[in-house]
């Protein structure tokens, strides 16, 4: 039986890749997408999620909007770095048509709370943006933290952050929310930079999507090339772009892709170390370990799965202008 999943996305480029990975995985039943801020404003992220779902033939998956900013702040503005990495529109300035439908009326927090109540152990929640929405669900319902199973992309345990020497982007947007999540959730798997900076994609792979001659193939290739280019500027030592968010989905499909450290986590929220994820020394010897931190990853197997699934999904989308010209021999 397929595992039910909800993706909580700040739909930028790697969130898009995560969404298509989920759609393309028969082991998963995507019951909804919740939209958060981060790479983009909530409205932009929700718009992108709806548009990508439509492009890949899943207009049936409901999309819900979450809080527009961290609860410790009054508002949110996209940082220059985020706009550089994901483009102003979140998908590398590639224009894709709006979906015919709109976001659901129900809030993302209500949807998460109701889904955990209804599906319990059959459901995985996969947040790939700031923890604000999940933290709000924990605060809204006393049973949520006890019963939710979460596989999140965020944080870095043993390597530096990517927005500062200590902080990873998702955690840095709302450190208090991730701290609350780590202290209360009974089952959270952390897919952080420790592993996601080992799973890299290059122009060689995106070229295979472009060769498909489909709308989905062109879109994935063009937006991911934009993302790879920003890595050439910001992290030239890596030699590709980090597949952060897709790895969280990969682990939902196949937990054996990563090796885990079982511990209890916290986030530092004060001073220069604000946003740093650490093991919680006060719970170090608790027999119950609520966090499972990925520290190793089978890179080759993951990249193989990732490419196979996304290529299959992209092949099934409509023929693109490029594709029809080349099949007509133009
Ligand atoms: C994370 O931050 C965002 O920019 C990406 O989408 C990913 O979720 C990586 O630090
Ligand atoms: Ca993300």
Task: Give an overview of the whole structure.
This protein is of the alpha/beta class and 330 residues long. It has a single domain, classed as Ribonucleoside hydrolase-like (Inosine-uridine Nucleoside N-ribohydrolase, Chain A, Alpha-Beta Complex). Helices cover 42% and strands 16% of the residues. It has helices at 13-23, 42-55, 80-86, 108-119, 132-140, 144-147, 169-173, 175-184, 193-196, 203-210, 215-234, 244-253, 299-315, 321-327, and strands at residues 3-9, 28-35, 63-65, 123-127, 150-153, 188-191, 200-201, 241-242, 258-263, 265-267, 277-279, 291-297. The protein has a four-stranded parallel β-sheet, with helices on both faces. A four-stranded mixed β-sheet has the order 5-6-12-9. Helix 5 packs across helix 8 (175-184). The longest helix is centred in the C-terminal third of the chain and has 20 residues, at 215-234. The model has no long low-confidence stretch (mean pLDDT 97). Bound molecules: beta-D-ribofuranose (BDR) and calcium ion. Beta-D-ribofuranose binds next to helix 1, helix 7 and helix 12.
């Amino acid at each position: 039986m397929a595992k039910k999943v909800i993706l909580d996305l700040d739909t930028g480029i790697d969130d898009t890749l995560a969404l298509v990975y989920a759609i393309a995985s028969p082991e998963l039943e995507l019951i909804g997408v919740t939209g958060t801020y981060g790479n983009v404003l909530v409205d932009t992220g929700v718009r992108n999620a709806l548009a990508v779902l439509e492009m890949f033939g899943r207009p049936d998956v409901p999309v819900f909007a979450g809080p527009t900013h961290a609860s410790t702040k009054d508002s949110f503005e996209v940082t220059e770095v985020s706009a550089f990495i994901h483009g102003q529109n979140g998908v590398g300035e590639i224009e894709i048509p709006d979906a015919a439908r709109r976001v659901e009326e129900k809030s993302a927090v209500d949807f998460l709370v109701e889904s955990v109540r209804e599906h319990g152990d059959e459901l995985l929640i996969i947040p790939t943006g700031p923890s604000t929405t999940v933290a709000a669900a924990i605060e809204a319902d006393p049973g949520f933290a006890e019963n939710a199973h979460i596989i999140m992309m965020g944080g870095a345990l043993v390597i530096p952050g990517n927005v500062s020497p200590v902080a990873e982007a998702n955690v840095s947007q709302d450190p208090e929310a991730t701290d609350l999540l780590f202290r209360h959730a009974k089952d959270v798997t952390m897919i952080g930079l420790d592993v996601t900076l080992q799973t890299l994609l290059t122009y060689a792979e995106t070229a295979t999507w472009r060769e498909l001659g489909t709308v989905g193939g062109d879109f994935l290739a063009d937006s991911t090339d934009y993302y790879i280019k920003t890595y050439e500027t910001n992290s030239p030592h890596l030699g590709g772009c980090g597949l952060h968010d897709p790895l969280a989905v990969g682990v939902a499909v196949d937990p054996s892709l990563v090796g885990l450290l079982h511990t209890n986590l916290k986030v530092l929220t004060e001073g220069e170390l604000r946003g740093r994820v650490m093991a919680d020394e006060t719970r170090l010897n608790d027999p119950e370990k609520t966090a499972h931190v990925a520290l190793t990853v089978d890179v080759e197997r993951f990249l193989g799965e990732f490419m196979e699934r996304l290529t299959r999904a992209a092949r099934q989308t409509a023929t693109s202008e490029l594709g029809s010209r080349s099949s007509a021999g133009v």
